[in-house]
Amino acid sequence: MQKETKLVALVGMCGAGKSIVSDRFLKAGYSYIRFGQAVLDEVKRRGVLTKTESLEREIREGFRKQYGMAAMAIINLPKFDELLSRGDVIADNMYSWSEYKVLKERYRDRLTIVAVYASPALRYERVAGRSTDVANDPTLRYRSFTPTEAYSRDTSEIENLEKGGPIAMADHTIMNTKDLAYLDEQIAELLRKLSV
Asked: How would residue 133 be classed by pLDDT, with cut points 50, 70 and 90?
């Protein structure tokens, strides 16, 4: 009997290290999808050259007004299904409790939630140090935020986007509180567990 493919969804606040974790899963053979890419695609579609946290928030919240709080999961279901038909998938940056419920209902035991944690102070330091050069980051994956913007984003995601629920319900938590070697040890151990 063929092993059923899995969807591993990463949750965590901005700057926690989800992109690093997803990159390690990619190297392990997982396909990649980013929950919020639809938001960044809309930023680009509007021709906005200088991205801002407030514009991204406006678009994110607009999608949720149109599709409900499960918007990013609903928008991405066809992509999840397509990628899962070919192998295991890492999905970067699930936001809401409603997204969690949609994915859990559809994929049941095939879904694993992984929370990536770092303290606010550490996360704000990380995101402030990111490059703002769109030429080097065309997908806007590593966006830079000031500490004030990062705090504003945290507050909005917790209060308006139900982000705490999926973090609380995570099947696994990775602590990104030390150096890269410490992070990589935890990722390698998780990949071993998931391959069983």
From this structure: very low
Token duo for residue 150: 């990062």
Number of H helices, E strands in the chain: 9, 5
Q: Are strands 31-34 and 7-11 parallel, antiparallel or unpaired?
A: unpaired
What is the arithmetic mean of pLDDT over 16-30?
96
Write down the pTM of the prediction: 0.84
Sign of the CA dihedral 187, 192, 193, 194? positive
Average pLDDT over residues 54-62: 86
Query: In this model, does residue 130 exceed pLDDT 70?
Result: no
Determine contact, residues 75/67, Cβ cutoff 8 Å: yes
pLDDT of residue 172: 98
- Hey, which CATH number is domain 7-195, 3.40.50.2300, 3.40.50.300, 3.40.430.10, 3.40.50.720? 3.40.50.300
Please, how many CA atoms are within 13 Å of residue 46, restricted to the half-sphere of its CB? Answer: 15
Q: According to the model, what pLDDT value does residue 143 have?
A: 64
Neighbours of 90 (CB within 10 A): 26
In Å, what is the CA distance from 34 to each residue of 60, 122, 147, 192?
14, 23, 24, 23
Half-sphere exposure of 157 (CA within 13 A, CB side): 22
- CA distance linking residue 21 with residue 16, whole number of Å: 10
| β-pair partners for 174 | 116
